[in-house]
């Protein structure tokens, strides 16, 4: 609710004007969770240079493979202005000049992303990029993002590229290395498949469009455009694979095709003159209950169905598809989503005539695993997200990316909803039928971070993370052994500690409907207890813990502001809470039971963050769409901080000198959008991020300083995990001119709160980037059959069970209708 502007209250600007902003050099590193944490829709090897490969993600940019199996991020320069470039919908690596790299970037084709997409172009393996804007949106985090690749380079004339667009925009072509693009007007189909035309969230109601482009490198010769090109389109019950025999001048549907399912991948086996195609009945990446694998022999125009399983064994679609370029006839295909008992991959060494699986049944419920499992690079997955028992999806889900190294038949990689797997002993599949399955996403940090705290005692950092709940970061540089447990929600939406008793921590969850969404720890996050006073089915929002850990204030998603006291003892003013909404600041002196409007925040219309100084009575900061505001009288009046025109997440850090006023970190607009630190209570600021570190969309990010290390800041992104920054350059001059104001004794009745807790009538400010990598809300559907699936993360089908059966959870990922 927009509040009436109270004019004049903040008329006087008391701080001196800020001149040019100094910068300080920072060293930025990822806080290591280890091994991904989100969906990997594409893995692409270069056909010419051994060892060159890339992985693309849907919300966190793209990575280049190193020769030690680790990955290096390529799009960390992406900042707020070009945030949608972290959604990479397609990637192409040049088969002629391997230094050339292209990506089609853009996050959403709906209103969530106001900007059109672009082709990012590099001629130095992704070290630097130029951008070629497209006249339409690109959907790196839309349905069908694992289909592909929808961007391809002509292997005989690498100045030529094709890009298959979404949303009815058709097929585009460049003849100048991606610099400019022209629509191919006579391409026959721009796509008709829409995952859910009635999606009330305006997400699955978009046309998926063109899915992949595959040049037939056996046609034509180097130096002239490749004549034969295949294009797969997300169509059902109408032609969905098209061919040109004249380098894109004319197109027709490939004769004899079967249009029952959507073609996800079209992979050429040059030595067999054959195009292999994987199909699913959904666009993915979450869905798919039926599908097929087919091959098309080009010289004879012959189609052959080579689907590895049939009948009741075929309860999934197919996604990832790869051929071994060094071993003609060796083909691998992944079940896109076999949600139970595990994902599945099939391998054939006779062109699909026969297949062998990655696991088989060894007398229900036991699985015979034709692999050994090694998750040492992402150990948190073992105890928490994949397990060694049946029914827990050890080998993965959302498997759209599958690739065999064109220079090494033993080296393969595949992407899942959470990480990358692979090995260097793939040929053992055909001999011992026993490969080593390793998690190989070291260097990839793809989480969407929702909350960060750095308490003054205990571990320096605790996180709340989407999809994989969050972690105690007692070491910033080593992979996490486990995430929060008991409760382990999908997402920990926010986290706070008690100012006077900082080993006491509260966190709230989002995403799971069936369990309570508030939990406490009294040992710095090592162990947790569910707050049984929390109402069922209420989740999300923001949480604040009172200074003495006796009162929780919870601004829920959709259920107003709730207050809970878990201990009986209270001290005076211990449980004052602040809140803000619009331009009104609120104070509650009765444990959050009621709030009264207090000071005004200028002309602000939305508040991002509220920060309370635990060391100085009445010292409060609020960041808004109109600036940064400071109060020294418990919010009765505010001063607008000069030079700050907008601010998002704000946090305190250690003061320059012990006992001084804490450093303030701000995601803000101060002569430009970026990340800043002030060591003198907002008088002077230094910019702490640089051109190589943009951190994506600023409104989606969270930050906090470290109260123990001056200059240290933790920054949580929406798709590139958590970073920590430390000062590396000298403190710029004139940045601590104001005397530290904190000579006042620390109050015991200090106030702890978080964003926008008050105004229960107001909708919370939401991030401009609302959807994370591998989550989707299950939609209520029709009735599931007995023994059918009825739930699990990502499930979009029926959730009601047939009469006589009950929906029973077997894992986070799978619920089944079991007979009563
Ligand atoms: C097309 O494919 C579907 C699914 O694989 C199959 O059931 C159907 O019989 C096929 N149609 C023809 C004409 O082969
Ligand atoms: C695969 O090899 C591992 C390690 O040698 C072994 O423990 C496992 O039993 C083997 N699996 C099969 C199915 O042979
Ligand atoms: C092909 O695969 C089968 C079954 O996996 C295996 O028995 C056979 O030895 C393989 N052939 C070659 C040439 O690797
Ligand atoms: C409690 O807080 C109010 C408002 O900030 C202040 O006026 C009062 O002095 C405080 N009382 C104590 C005992 O600190």
TrEMBL record:
Record keywords, A-Z: Carbohydrate metabolism, Cellulose degradation, Glycosidase, Hydrolase, Polysaccharide degradation, Signal
Annotated InterPro entries: CBD, CBD_sf, WD40/YVTN_repeat-like_dom_sf, Xyloglucanase_GH74
CDD domains: Sialidase_non-viral (cd15482)
Segment forming the signal sequence: 1-20
One GO term (biological process): xyloglucan metabolic process
GO cellular component: extracellular region
An MF annotation (GO) of this entry: cellulose binding
Gene3D superfamilies: YVTN repeat-like/Quinoprotein amine dehydrogenase
Entry keyword annotation includes Hydrolase: yes
Domain CBM1: 782-818
Keyword Repressor applies: no
PROSITE patterns: CBM1_1, CBM1_2
Family note: Belongs to the glycosyl hydrolase 74 family.
Protein name, entry field: CBM1 domain-containing protein
Species name: Pleurotus ostreatus (Oyster mushroom)
């Amino acid at each position: 609710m927009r509040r009436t502007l109270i004019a004049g209250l903040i008329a006087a600007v008391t701080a001196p004007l800020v001149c040019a902003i100094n910068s300080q050099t920072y060293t930025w590193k990822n806080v290591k969770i280890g091994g991904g944490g989100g969906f990997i829709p594409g893995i692409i090897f270069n056909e010419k240079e051994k060892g060159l490969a890339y992985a693309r993600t849907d919300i966190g940019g793209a990575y280049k493979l190193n020769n030690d199996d680790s990955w290096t991020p390529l799009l960390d320069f992406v900042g707020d202005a070009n945030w949608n470039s972290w959604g990479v919908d397609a990637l192409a690596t040049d088969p002629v000049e391997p230094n050339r790299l292209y990506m089609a970037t853009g996050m959403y084709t709906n209103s969530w992303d106001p900007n059109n997409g672009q082709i990012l172009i590099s001629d130095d393996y992704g070290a630097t990029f130029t951008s070629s804007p497209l006249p339409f949106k690109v959907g790196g985090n839309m349905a069908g993002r694992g289909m592909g690749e929808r961007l391809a380079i002509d292997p005989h004339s690498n100045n030529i590229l094709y890009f298959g667009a979404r949303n009815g925009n058709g097929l585009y072509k460049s003849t100048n290395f991606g610099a400019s693009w022209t629509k191919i007007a006579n391409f026959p189909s721009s796509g008709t498949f829409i995952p859910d035309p009635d999606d009330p969230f305006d997400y699955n109601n978009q046309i998926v469009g063109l899915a992949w482009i595959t040049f037939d490198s056996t046609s034509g010769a180097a130096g002239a455009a490749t004549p034969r090109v295949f294009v797969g389109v997300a169509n059902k019950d109408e032609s969905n694979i098209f061919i040109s025999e004249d380098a894109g001048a004319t197109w027709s549907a490939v004769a004899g095709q079967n249009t029952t399912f959507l073609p996800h991948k079209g992979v050429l086996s040059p030595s067999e003159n054959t195009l292999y195609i994987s199909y699913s009945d959904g666009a993915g990446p979450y869905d798919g209950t039926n599908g097929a694998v087919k091959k098309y022999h080009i010289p004879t125009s012959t189609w052959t169905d080579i689907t590895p399983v049939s009948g009741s064994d075929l309860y999934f679609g197919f996604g990832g598809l790869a051929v071994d370029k060094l071993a003609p006839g060796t083909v691998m295909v992944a079940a896109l989503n076999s949600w139970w008992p595990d994902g599945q991959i099939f391998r054939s060494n006779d062109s699909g005539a026969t297949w062998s699986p990655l696991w088989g049944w060894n007398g229900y419920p036991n699985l015979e695993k034709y692999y050994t499992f090694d998750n040492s690079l992402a150990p948190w997955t073992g105890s928490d997200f994949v397990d060694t028992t049946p029914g827990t999806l050890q080998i993965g889900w959302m498997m759209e990316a599958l690739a065999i190294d064109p220079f090494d038949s033993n080296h393969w990689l595949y992407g899942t909803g959470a990480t990358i797997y692979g090995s260097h002993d793939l040929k053992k599949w055909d001999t011992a039928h026993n490969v080593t399955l390793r998690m190989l996403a070291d260097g990839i940090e793809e989480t969407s971070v929702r909350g960060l705290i750095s308490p003054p005692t205990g571990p320096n950092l605790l996180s709340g993370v989407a999809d994989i709940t969050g972690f105690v970061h007692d070491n910033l540089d080593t992979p996490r052994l486990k995430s929060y447990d008991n409760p382990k929600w999908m997402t920990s939406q926010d986290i706070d500690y008690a100012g006077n008793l900082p080993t006491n921590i509260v966190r709230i969850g989002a995403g799971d409907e069936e369990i309570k969404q508030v939990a406490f720890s009294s040992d710095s996050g090592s162990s947790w207890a569910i707050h049984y006073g929390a109402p069922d089915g209420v989740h999300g929002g923001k949480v604040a813990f009172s200074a003495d850990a006796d009162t929780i204030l919870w601004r829920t998603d959709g259920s107003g502001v709730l207050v809970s006291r878990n201990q009986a003892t209270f001290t005076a003013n211990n449980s004052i809470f602040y809140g803000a909404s619009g331009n009104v600041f609120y104070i509650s002196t009765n444990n959050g039971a009621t709030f009264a409007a207090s000071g005004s925040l200028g002309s602000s219309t939305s508040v991002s963050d509220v920060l309370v100084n635990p060391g100085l009575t009445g010292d409060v900061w609020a960041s808004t769409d109109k600036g940064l505001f400071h109060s020294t009288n418990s919010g009765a009046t505010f001063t607008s901080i000069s030079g700050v025109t907008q601010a998002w997440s704000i946090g305190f850090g250690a003061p320059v000198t012990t006992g001084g006023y804490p450093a303030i970190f701000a995601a803000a607009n101060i002569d430009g959008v970026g990340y800043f630190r002030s060591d003198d209570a907002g008088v002077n600021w230094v910019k702490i991020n640089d051109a190589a570190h943009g951190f994506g969309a600023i409104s989606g990010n969270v930050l906090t300083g470290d109260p123990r290390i001056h200059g240290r800041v933790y920054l949580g992104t929406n798709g590139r995990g958590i970073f920590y920054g430390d000062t590396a350059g000298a403190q710029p001059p004139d940045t601590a001119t104001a005397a530290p104001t904190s000579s006042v004794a620390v109050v015991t009745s200090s106030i702890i709160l978080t964003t926008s807790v008050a105004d229960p009538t107001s909708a919370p400010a939401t991030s401009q980037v609302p959807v994370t990598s591998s989550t989707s809300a299950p939609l209520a559907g029709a009735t599931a059959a007995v023994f059918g699936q009825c739930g699990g993360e990502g499930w979009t089908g029926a959730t009601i069970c047939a009469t006589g059966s009950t929906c029973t959870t077997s894992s986070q990922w799978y619920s089944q209708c079991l007979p009563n």
